[in-house]
Write a structure and sequence with these properties.
It is built from three helices and eight strands, in the order H-H-E-E-E-H-E-E-E-E-E. The protein is of the alpha+beta class and 152 residues long.
Length: 152
């Protein structure tokens, strides 16, 4: 685990140094990857933009295939392998905000290449009467084994 943490911190340091070289690259580079405590979670702050289909958000009055532009604000991974991704967005103009908070549970299967490809996130979308949307995806164990569990 120690070498994995050192690799992540090394990558974050190099990315941080490269992002200082130009304002344009700073927009797309890793800004922070901070470990919370000696054996705590890694928190990666980001501003990656995604189009999330309403089938995952459950916004009343909007077609299931309609998409909402949302910005990922953070990605958290714990030593036990649990990961959480948080995205925020706003209802598009012309879409009425609900009169009360709407909470919608669904799942999302990762399609992008990487360690989580093919894994299924449990998701919760919360749409507020103000029109703000928070979409949180949680994957219980991306490493295939939790902390303290041995491989068989």
């Amino acid at each position: 685990m120690r070498s994995f943490q050192q690799q992540i911190l090394g990558i974050a340091l190099v990315a941080g140094l490269l992002s200082v070289s130009s304002a344009a690259s700073a927009q797309n580079a890793v800004r922070t990857a901070v470990q919370q405590g000696q054996s705590g979670a890694f928190v990666h702050k980001t501003d990656q933009v995604y189009n999330i289909p309403n089938a995952s958000l459950g916004i009343p009055g909007l077609a299931p295939d309609a998409q909402i532009e949302m910005t990922q604000t953070k990605f958290i991974i714990t030593p036990s392998g649990k990961s959480t991704s948080v995205l925020v967005g706003k209802l598009p103009s012309g879409v009425a905000a609900p009169t009360q908070r709407v909470v919608y549970n669904s799942t999302y299967t990762e399609v992008a290449d990487g360690p989580t490809k093919g894994r299924t996130y449990q998701t919760v979308a919360v749409t507020e009467p103000t029109g703000s949307i928070t979409y949180t995806g949680t994957l219980d164990n991306i490493k295939g084994q939790g902390k303290g569990k041995s491989k068989k």
